[in-house]
Design goal:
This protein is mainly α. It contains 20 helices and two strands. It has helices at 2-23, 28-51, 75-98, 105-124, 128-146, 152-182, 203-217, 229-232, 238-247, 249-265, 267-270, 274-296, 300-320, 324-355, 366-369, 371-384, 391-406, 408-438, 457-475, 478-488; strands at residues 58-64, 67-71. It has a two-stranded antiparallel sheet with strand order 1-2. β1 (58-64) and β2 (67-71) form a beta hairpin. The two termini are 27 Å apart.
């Protein structure tokens, strides 16, 4: 049952997505029904896979000794796969209406659907070799989405994206080779898979290789200095940027770092070492640098992109503390940030396609023209700022608590960086909301006065779901957080 379900949730979106250009749908409606049906069926199958997760490793193919293509859904895998299964149908529904304003929808939905299967394969990977293979496949399948518009800006963004991704892949590959050579060949295990006998005398080399692999896998999580690709790909259609920034690519980067630290190397080898210190300092520097850039960025989508860079390093900071509470905070913020950020990007996309306004100062007075969209954006901005009772406060508090528990000068640096970045997030997130509600409509946009420009139900319904979820995860997150703590705590 499990091997069949695993193959199904990976292959169904891959094959069904690849078939979209072949069908030559007679109408947008027919294509939308087909795509949404595929995504919903795959989400249901993923839910069944999670509910029936047996903890067993299912090897599909053995390449050589200690190099298997294998799958298993453990705690982190269930969390990531569940997030994908929940958000993807809503993101697809949003994309149907958005793509009415864009060209070549068949090609778009083909790669958009295929990306779901690759992302779930990353979540279900049982070892680093399998994760690495699908991690790089995700680059290939999302590259056409980044370059979808085929204009100069999109092509340049795609070139930057693939250049950074290949560079990061090469660095991560070095880490993979060392782990295969010094590892036991066991699947992901909390505490690591290194062979104690083999690593004797090579501990320092392995630690420095870890730092290289951390930056390599962290490329998709936009760690400094590998972060600049993320703001550039904001030129892609908004369903793509929402996918990249909130669901698939960046979360895959964070997830890979989690697997590298806690399930491959193990924290005992790394904690207290200079490479761990440098990794933590890189994460703290990135979250502050990106927050500064977000405050200064006038373009709304790029501002949100820099915010994503900063918030990804919230997660990486928690993971680099290398404690159960740090892992809990990192995983919690992965969930909370995904919900908040996909909502904010959807709002930005709705504003862009309905008004063609892309800059913060162009949004003055829009609460009258787009009441539903601006309300969702304002709630998302409050959540991103970490203001209770919304969900952003929950995960930020856990991260701060984890840094305080760590103690020492590293804990103080992490706490200081998190607090400063949180204050700055209030500036870059709430400023657009303030402009929407408390500034008069721009004189050049007087023609919009009295008009109602909120999008249709296919774009508004996902916004409504995210707003409700931000509140629920803020006031009733205890069961989820308890489960995450159970994942992060060694038995």
């Amino acid at each position: 049952m499990q091997p069949l379900l695993i193959c199904s949730v990976i292959l169904l979106p891959l094959l069904a997505g690849a078939a979209i250009p072949l069908f030559r749908f007679r109408s947008d409606r027919a294509r939308s029904i087909y795509v949404e049906a595929v995504v919903l069926i795959n989400s249901v199958l993923t839910a069944l896979l999670i509910l029936n997760a047996d903890g067993k490793v299912h090897t599909l193919y053995t390449l050589m000794d200690r190099l298997d293509i294998a799958f298993r859904l453990d705690g982190p895998g269930c969390l990531f796969a569940g997030l994908v299964a929940f958000l993807w149908p809503l993101a697809t529904l949003y994309a149907f209406e958005y793509m009415e304003y864009e060209s070549r929808p068949d090609a778009f939905f083909a790669f958009y659907t295929m990306s779901m299967g690759i992302t779930i394969a990353i979540a279900a990977a049982a070892n680093l070799a399998t994760l690495y293979m699908f991690y790089e496949c995700l680059t290939l399948v999302t590259l056409p989405l980044v370059s979808h518009k085929k204009d100069d800006a999109s092509i340049k963004a795609a070139e930057t994206y693939v250049t950074f991704s290949i560079t990061g892949a090469a660095m991560a590959f070095v880490g993979l080779i060392f782990l295969l050579n010094y590892g036991t060949g066991a699947p992901f295990t909390l505490g690591g898979t290194l062979n104690p006998e083999r690593i004797q005398g090579s501990e320092d080399v392995l630690r420095w290789v870890f730092l290289l692999a951390f930056v390599g896998f962290g490329t998709k999580a936009a760690i400094f200095p590998m972060y600049s690709w993320l703001p550039k790909v904001s030129v892609a259609p908004t369903p793509v940027t929402a996918l990249l920034h909130a669901v698939a690519v960046v979360n895959a980067g964070t997830f890979a770092v989690l697997r590298l630290i806690y399930y491959s190397y193990g924290t005992e080898l790394l904690r207290g070492s200079l490479p761990q210190t440098l990794a933590l300092l890189l994460a703290c520097f990135t979250l502050l640098l990106a927050a500064v850039k977000a405050v200064r960025e006038p373009h709304l989508k790029r501002r949100l992109a820099y915010s994503t860079v900063s918030n990804l390093s919230y997660m990486l900071t928690g993971l680099c503390l290398m404690t159960p509470s740090g892992m809990t905070g990192g995983l919690a913020h992965l969930i909370m940030h995904s919900v908040i950020k996909i909502c904010l990007f959807w709002c930005a996309g709705a504003i862009l396609v309905r008004t063609r306004c892309a800059y913060v100062q162009d949004l003055r007075g829009f609460h009258r023209q787009m009441p539903a969209t601006t309300a969702a954006f304002a709630i998302g901005a409050v959540a991103l700022s970490g203001i209770p009772p919304l969900c952003g406060f929950t995960s930020k508090w856990i991260l701060l608590s984890a840094a305080r528990e760590t103690g020492g000068w590293l804990g103080i640096i992490a706490m200081t960086a998190l607090i400063i970045a949180s204050l700055m997030s209030a500036v870059y997130a709430l400023t657009p909301a303030f402009v929407m509600y408390f500034r008069p409509l721009n004189s050049g946009l007087r023609a919009l006065e009295g008009r109602r420009l909120d999008p249709g139900w296919r774009m508004k319904f996902p916004l409504f779901v995210m707003v409700i979820l931000m509140l629920v995860l803020g006031v009733a997150a205890s069961p989820l957080l308890g489960w995450i703590r159970g994942i992060a705590t060694p038995v």
